[in-house]
């Protein structure tokens, strides 16, 4: 998934995972420079609803 088109402030209606249903994971580098990298991950259910999101900025 390309996260570059997402606005800087987003409100997401997270759905819950139901037992026995499949989910899809994605992980991407949003931005990288000589000191930091910005990592975003998300979990989607099999209907492509976002259920969880992870974002971090780490130093190198």
Mean pLDDT across residues: 78
Query: Runs with pLDDT <50, length 5+?
Result: none
Shape: elongated
Distance between the termini: 24 Å
Number of helices: 0
Into which percentage range does the β-strand content fall? over 45%
SSE string: EEE
Sketch the major β-sheet. Answer: 3 strands, antiparallel
Strands in their spatial order, largest beta sheet = 1-2-3
Beta strand count: 3
Backbone CA Rg: 13 Å
Which percent range fits the helix content? under 10%
- Secondary-structure content class: mainly beta
Protein described:
With 60 residues, the protein is mainly β. It has a domain at 23-60. It has strands spanning 23-32, 36-45, 50-59. The chain has a 3-stranded antiparallel sheet, with no helix packed on it. Strand 2 and strand 3 form a beta hairpin. The mean pLDDT is 78.
């Amino acid at each position: 998934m390309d996260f570059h088109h997402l606005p800087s402030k987003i409100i997401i209606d997270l759905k819950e995972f139901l037992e026995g249903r499949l989910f899809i994971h994605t992980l991407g580098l949003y931005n990288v420079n000589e000191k930091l990298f910005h990592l975003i991950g998300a979990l989607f259910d099999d209907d492509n609803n976002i259920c969880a999101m992870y974002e971090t900025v780490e130093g190198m």
